[in-house]
Amino acid sequence: MNAPLSPLLSLEDVHTHIGAYHILHGVDLDVPRGQLTMLLGRNGAGKTTTLRTIMGLWQASQGRVSFDGQDLTGKSTPDVAALGIAYVPENMGIFADLSVKENMLLAARSARRIEDIDTTRLEWIFSLFPAIKKFWLHPAGKLSGGQKQMLAVSRAIVEPRKLLLIDEPSKGLAPAIIANMIAAFRELKQTDTTILLVEQNFNFARQLGDTVAVMDDGKVVHRGSMAELAEDEALQTRLLGLSLTAHQ
């Protein structure tokens, strides 16, 4: 039996307040190194707040966030990003008035000119998302919703990252675009990139997840393998209120 993978990211008893609201109520979460962990749960369960707390966009009021042996608690967002963590928010975070090329350059922290970006990596991104190459000089704001999501993910991976935090990448996308996104994430998984991904599309989750954590009311209420959750309809119904098989 293989030993469990060591976590790259750990949250221990993390509480987050936003103004007067207590959103996270003691989150315990391990994200194994080199795996894709799905973070599932009903709307309002605290999934996005968890990602934003990891990134330092909101500060934990209690508990500890550790990444690759370092304590992230209290660090600013730029300091967190500098450690090799990229965040793709639900609103994608792209710059609508800039071209696709300019968006990519801004995301490449070590590049001052487009020529400074690793050509091999750029070609790899083009192979994942051909629309990025096709619309390279177009304003990002003119892209379709699916193309904007591809750009958001491309920006996150323009340089090697240790950890990707991605919030609902399939939301509002057509089935063909979702299939493209699944294929791209499968390829990303082969690069040993660790991914924590919030998702509402359970078929998407089933196809990609290695491990899964389910949140409810600001806490993680279930942890385990994605395959086991995908096979257990009673558990899906209890945790999520519906079954994966009903939403394929």
UniProtKB/TrEMBL annotation:
Q: Which SMART domains match?
A: AAA
Under the heading SUPFAM superfamilies, the entry gives:
P-loop containing nucleoside triphosphate hydrolases (SSF52540)
Q: Which InterPro entries match?
A: AAA+_ATPase, ABC_transporter-like_ATP-bd, ABC_transporter-like_CS, BCAA_Transport_ATP-bd_LivF, P-loop_NTPase
Q: The ABC transporter domain covers which part of the protein?
A: 9-242
One Pfam family per UniProt: ABC_tran
Determine the domain of life of the protein's source: Bacteria
* GO MF term set: ATP binding; ATP hydrolysis activity; branched-chain amino acid transmembrane transporter activity
Q: Give the UniProt record's GO annotations in the biological process aspect.
A: L-amino acid transport
Q: Which UniProt keywords apply?
A: Amino-acid transport, ATP-binding, Cell membrane, Membrane, Nucleotide-binding, Transport
Q: What is this protein called?
A: ABC transporter ATP-binding protein
According to its UniProt entry, this protein's organism is Noviherbaspirillum cavernae
